[in-house]
Design a protein that fits this description.
Blueprint (H helix, E strand, L loop, with lengths): L1 H7 L4 H10 L1 H4 L10 E9 L15 E9 L5 E8 L5 H11 L5 E5 L13 E5 L6 H4 L1 H14 L12 H13 L7 H12 L6 H5 L4
Parallel strand pairs: 1-4, 4-5
Antiparallel strand pairs: 1-2, 2-3
Amino acid sequence: MGHFSKDLGIWQLPQCLAAAAQDQNGHVFSDRHLLSGDVEVDEAFLGGVRSGKRGRGAEGKQLIVIAAEFSRKKKIGRIRIKRSSDTSAESLEGFIKTNIAAKSTVHTDGWKGYIGVKSIGYKHLSVKSESADPDELLPRVNIVTALLKRWLLGPPHGRLDEKHMDSYLEEFVFRFNRRTSKVRGLLFQRIIENSMNVEPAPYKKITARKP
C-alpha cells in the first residue's frame, strides 16, 4: 500500500481507491484503433439546467464532443467522447483528427465550426438543423448523449465534479465500447493490465486536466 501511495502522490486509503477507480490510464488503451467509415460528430452540454446563455454558448456547463460510428441502420458502433473548451473549428477539427481515421465520412449539423472538415482529409456530410427532424439529424449521437446523461446519475450520483469529468467520460466510453462483450469478467482484468503497463498517474495529475 505504501508503494502505491508514494507512486500516486496520495496517502489515505479512500483517496487511493478513488484514484484507482477513476484512473484514466486503465480505461484508455494506447493501441486502440481510430473510428472509421461513417461517423457522426456533435457537441453536447452536461450539468443540468442553469441560468445563462443557451445553445453553443451555454455558460456554467461541461461542453463535450461526441463521435459515434455507424453500425448498420441506425445502430451504433464504437464511440469517443472528449471535453472541449469551445466549439471553434480548431477544437472540433482537432477532436476529429485525434479520434477518426482519415478519409472517413464525417456527419455533422450545419455549425460553422465544421466547415473545414473536408479540407483536413475527410468526406463531410452536413445537414442543417432546419431541414431535418431533430431526432433524425444525428440519431447515434443523440442516443449516446441520452445514455451518458442517464449513466452519470449513477456512479457520481448526479453530482458532476469537474476535476473528475475526464475520468467519468473515459469510463463510460470504455463500458459502451465493450457492451456486447461475452466475457464480462475480462474487462476488469484488461483495466488492471493496462494500468500496470503505463506510468503511474498521480492524483493531482488526474484531477488537474483541462478541456
